[in-house]
Amino acid sequence: MLAWCAWLHPGIKAWLDLSVMLQSARKGGSLLDVGCGGGGCLSFMSELGWSVCSVDPDSVAVENAVRRALDVRIGFVGGRYV
């Protein structure tokens, strides 16, 4: 429901995106980033203590993220382009 409401107010989506990044990492907490690009956000979340991994269909983006020592794999989610 909250995701649907995010489109009703112009600033709420950005606030929701930021609020996820401000969550404290829980011991053993994991984060899956679908479509991580070069891994900037994924790297930031890892620095905050999250165990992170991602999937992205762009092989160049995946190569860049892997160079940053991130667990990123080339692929799709549910057979659809992400």
Care to describe what's here?
There is one protein chain. This protein has 82 residues and is of the alpha/beta class. It has one domain (25-82). It is 38% helix and 17% strand. It has helices at 2-5, 12-21, 40-47, 59-67, and strands spanning 30-34, 51-56, 72-74. It has a three-stranded parallel β-sheet with strand order 1-2-3, covered by helices on one side. The longest helix has 10 residues, at 12-21. The radius of gyration is 14 Å and the shape is globular.
Structural class: alpha/beta
Distance between the termini: 22 Å
Order of helices and strands: HHEHEHE
Question: How many domains make up the coordinates?
Answer: 1
- Uncertain regions spanning at least 5 consecutive residues: 1-6
Strand order of the largest sheet: 1-2-3
- Helix count? 4
Q: In which range does the helix fraction lie?
A: 25-40%
The main sheet comes to: 3 strands, parallel
The mean pLDDT is 78
The rough form would be described as: globular
Rg on CA atoms, Å = 14 Å
Number of strands: 3
Strand content: 15-25%
Give keywords.
82 residues, alpha/beta, three-stranded parallel beta sheet, 4 helices, 38% helix, disordered N terminus
In short:
By secondary structure, this protein is α/β, with parallel strands linked by helices. The chain is 38% helix and 17% strand. A three-stranded parallel sheet has the order 1-2-3, covered by helices on one side.
Topology (elements, then pairings):
Elements: H1 2-5, H2 12-21, E1 30-34, H3 40-47, E2 51-56, H4 59-67, E3 72-74
